[in-house]
Amino acid sequence: MRHLRALVWLSLVCPLPLTACGKGGGIDLPEARAFPPPGAPEATTLVSAGTGERVLRFAPKADTSDKVRVDATVSSIAKAGGQSMTFELGLDLTMASRVEEVEADGRFRVRSVIDDVKTRLGGDLAKMGGESAASMMADMMKGIATAVTLDSRGRMLGMQLEGDNPVMQQMQMGFDRGFQSGFVPLPEEAVGPGAEWDVLGHMDSMGVKARLAARYKLVALEGSRATLEVTMRGAADPQATEMQGAIVELERLAITGSGTMTIDLERPTRGEMDLTLELTAAMEAQGQSADAEMSMRMKAHTP
């Protein structure tokens, strides 16, 4: 049963760092050699310029701040050795995000703090007393802060995590990548409505390393606000990692999803998201094979 819990944990924490996800279409996952080195900024390639009206760049002002409200629902099932475990988690959280610094070259730094977290737990894990663990997780997440440095194209240059709990730090990093401010790596070229561009990057969550390929489509551009459709595919090579005290040999991990988002180039702490995600994984733990399937829905907005 322990490795089933580990696999359920994998299906929860791995998707969190995704800024968006792709389901069924939009973009194929390129070969590994096409991706930038791990730790390097995301690689962006223009597919179509659309009407080619403007060069899009983030241009925030220092000391601007917003509250971000996030609602996420995760459902998963893990199967191994003729047994199965279901897991349902709802997260309702509020974050305070603030632009702290803006450099002359366009780089800027955003600091976010989780103010409040509420959890909803269901499935077999809840029947086994998981409610107390979910409540503890929520308490541990409150007050954790993350500072993210980006360039004017929205590419992440660095991240600093505050707090001394490594598990919550990993989850907080996921929230900032996926929920916080809608940072989207922008193309170098001028674009307009109808434009599409691909972004290649990496994810590292709870020791699991994966490649992610996203395609963004600019649906509308009004002043500093841009509305986007996004699709993504992700995959991980076979690797070993430790989850919930168990050594796990990850054999396969595939991520797909889709969504829409609105960003504000002048106020990147503001925006809206509505994303869906699906994950499938196969692993071996303690000499036994196991499989997991997960679906996730994330909504975020600035009230």
Number of H- or I-type helical stretches:
3
Share of residues in helices: 10-25%
Distance between the termini: 42 Å
Overall geometry? globular
Name the structural class.
mainly beta
Radius of gyration: 19 Å
Provide the β-strand percentage band.
over 45%
Mean pLDDT: 81
The total count of strands amounts to 13
Q: Give the tally of structural domains.
A: 1
Oligomer: single chain
The biggest sheet amounts to: 13 strands, antiparallel
Low-confidence stretches: 1-25, 172-181
Q: N-to-C SSE series? A: HEEEEHEEHEEEEEEE
Q: What features would you describe in this structure?
A:
- With 303 residues, the protein is mostly beta strands.
- It has one domain (2-296).
- Helix content is 15%, strand content 53%.
- The protein has helices at residues 2-13, 124-141, 166-180; strands at residues 43-48, 65-80, 83-102, 108-122, 145-150, 156-162, 196-205, 208-222, 225-236, 239-243, 246-264, 271-285, 288-301.
- Strands 1, 2, 3, 4, 5, 6, 7, 8, 9, 10, 11, 12 and 13 form a 13-stranded antiparallel β-sheet that branches.
- A hairpin with a 2-residue loop joins strand 8 and strand 9 (225-236).
- The radius of gyration is 19 Å and the shape is globular.
- The model is unreliable at 1-25 and 172-181 (pLDDT under 50).
Helices, strands, pairings?
Blueprint: H1 2-13, E1 43-48, E2 65-80, E3 83-102, E4 108-122, H2 124-141, E5 145-150, E6 156-162, H3 166-180, E7 196-205, E8 208-222, E9 225-236, E10 239-243, E11 246-264, E12 271-285, E13 288-301
Antiparallel strand pairs: 1-7, 2-3, 2-13, 3-4, 4-5, 5-6, 7-8, 8-9, 9-11, 10-11, 11-12, 12-13
